[in-house]
Amino acid sequence: MAEDRRTRRTKRLLRNAMVELVLQNGFDNVTVEDITEHADISRATFYKYYRDKQALLDQVVSDVHAELQARLVPLAPESSRGFTGKPALELFRHAREERDAYRVILRGEGHGTALRKFVDIRTASAARIFAERAANLGVTMRIQPELLARAWVGEQVAILQWWLEQDEPAMTAEEITQMLLTLSLRGRYWANGFDGPPDDVTLAPVPE
To answer: HTH tetR-type domain location, by residue (predicted)?
Structure first.
């Protein structure tokens, strides 16, 4: 148990050092030596756990997702029965608490690998919930679950990128989530100020 605690502490120090240095200098300009010096940990210890700095960045994403998922699991049964907005609220609350780690991911550090991994994980989770909800409520989805999930996650990512880069956010996590909930329930047509959607919308044919 003591060794496990030492391992967790070491990994946390390396993770924190990397996040801080990447925010200051960018992923490409940070070396393993920079990370170990900042964390006051030997390079041999670093390589005991990670093959390179990219592996450490991947671990940052995995840790963020694991922490977030632990908060989302209790909400899954209710979410699979109806749209509550609670998972989105937990995402924004978690991002507020782990702001620096999220900023590293959302800035596309590591040539975008961290952001792609984060988006793919969140998309798979959302698609599963959407499909379960439709099955539980006996409805047929009108848009493919993965496409719908990517649209939903894309909205969240874009807002998180904007929100977390503000020194003093103009909106709270609760306010943003309420707006997203309203947008999801009422649609962009309504959000643009129109009273109701048109009866039928199809793409105009594109001349060849």
So the answer is: 8-68
